[in-house]
Amino acid sequence: MPSKMLQFIRLAQAMPDKRPSAERRRDFDEIYRPFEAPAATGQASRCEQCGIPFCQIHCPVGNNIPDWLMLAATGRLDEAYALSSATNNFPEICGRICPQDRLCEGHCVLEQSHHGAVTIGAMEKHITDTAWAKGWVKPVKPIRERAQTVGIVGAGPAGLAAAEQLRKQGYGVHVYDRHDRAGGLLIYGIPGFKLDKEIVTRRTRLLADGGVVFHLNFEIGRDGSLTELRQRHDAVLIATGVYKAKALSVPGAGLSGLRPALDYLIASNRVGLGDKVPAFEDGQLNAAGKKVVVIGGGDTAMDCLRTAIRQGAQSVKCLYRRDRANMPGSQREVGNAEDEGVEFIWQSAPEALLGDGHVTGVRSVRMHLGIADTTGRQVPTPIEGSHFTVPADLVITALGFDPEDTPALFGADDLAVTRWGTLAVDSRTQMTSLPGVFAAGDIVRGASLVVWAIKDGRAAAAAIDQYIRAGETRRAAE
Ligand SMILES: Cc1cc2nc3c(=O)[nH]c(=O)nc-3n(C[C@H](O)[C@H](O)[C@H](O)COP(=O)(O)OP(=O)(O)OC[C@H]3O[C@@H](n4cnc5c(N)ncnc54)[C@H](O)[C@@H]3O)c2cc1C
Ligand code: SF4
Question: Is residue 143 a part of any domain in this protein?
Fold first, then answer.
């Protein structure tokens, strides 16, 4: 092992510089500045090169982290990029938005021994951003073109990762998406201060340059049916995500001024991309000057809170029924939200929305955290007589998402679903109950993470390749 490694003994953990909160409150630019090259080399050299790399085990795509850290520490960034992109189609995206504290970095042995984890996510971003800057990232060029084609429904990370993998094998790949831009939640869900939109669009341009054909503004169920896709292509992948917002069912839920998180975030992202959004312009989906309350404690809630700050809200509060330690959102994001001026009202739940026509406040109750349930999380129960009202004129619900009724939307009654409404797949092959129809990403897992969607997209692409080849072999033998 080069003597350059194990430098954690003399070098402390350091993230790339964060822009001051007063500055970042005013724009939607990413909050971290790029790593300077010498700092990045130093941080990579902190790696202990463990015999059993727990970081890699807890990375959903199984990134070979110790090896690319060693290559980066010894200045071999081109090889580090080749290695990191071998397991991950969008390493610079994961480097930016994976909840590393729960995945790779949370399991780094240096973190466990209180030395501070290697900044794996920031290094992954640095390696791949350098690769883009140096022109090392190239469109796919298959060794040979194959006659078969695959139709992919959904241009989110699952669909795009599968598209790239299948093009590498030489298949004709057609991606259908109901939106006017590719990227799924990467483009219309996750705000620009976490993931600059150009990072996503340069990826979709690269895929198009590599021969992937995009059919945008094309909704399966409206502009074409699953049956037609199955006739047109040799295999179909469904990667449509989950979009049915869980509703808030309290008295007053019919008042105006109550909006689901994704409507709010899509409007904000569209405005950032230069689109005209009437519901933003007339103020319905614009937090400027308003008292904003966001209900929920996940990453979506954090994104709404921090968007409202940037839109110039008068106040931004988060109502969450558990405490900080028990919230599903990344702790790093909670810290960023606090720095930017968000107020968290922990262990509090909404009981009713108040107002006459338009919401004016959220009547809330304090919660007691009892014993843990089977999932290990403490169960919240209301504390009698602890009511209080939070003034609000825009209330955003971020309570999670359920799958839409895919069989009904696709006119495919024989497409089997689980009891949660997600698509049922064979865990080995990712194939649904319909032969030649595969599924990947949130529509299989329920609301999850980008890195899991990439992993599933890659697995589905490998299974589709096997399925098509097996069909060829069978036909040749007949
Ligand atoms: C606000 C928000 C913030 C998030 N932040 C993070 C984060 O920081 N880190 C992280 O790892 N994860 C985050 N996630 C989760 C992550 O975005 C998802 O897990 C991931 O995008 C799922 O990928 P997917 O490809 O399965 O689906 P999606 O990204 O949802 O893409 C599905 C695509 O299918 C299209 N589609 C749906 N139905 C049809 C149809 N009938 N016809 C044609 N096209 C259709 C949609 O338009 C969409 O483009 C966040 C999610 C949200 C909502
Ligand atoms: S993909 Fe995510 S979990 Fe894996 S190394 Fe990168 S940041 Fe960590």
Answer: no
User: What confidence tens digit (pLDDT) does each residue in 108-156 have?
Assistant: 999 998 999 999 999 999 999 999 999 999 999 999 999 999 999 999 9
CA distances, 48 to each of 5, 45, 455 (Å) = 7, 8, 26
| Cβ-based neighbours of 99, under 8 Å, separated by 6 or more | 299, 330, 332, 333, 449
Do 171 and 46 share a structural domain? no
Ligand 1 probe mutation, 179, 334, 450, 455, most atoms within 8 A of CB: 450
Atom index in ligand 1 nearest the CA of residue 189 equals 1
Residues 259 and 393 in one domain: yes
pTM for the predicted model, two decimal places: 0.96
CB 325 within 8 A of CB 346: no
Q: How many domains does the chain have?
A: 3
10 Å Cβ neighbour count for 251?
11
Give the DSSP H or E segment for 365. Answer: strand 358-372
142 in any annotated domain: no
Q: How confident is the model at residue 223 (pLDDT cuts 50, 70, 90)?
A: very high
Contacts (Cβ under 8 Å, ≥6 apart) of 274: none
CATH number of the domain at 98, please: 1.10.1060.10
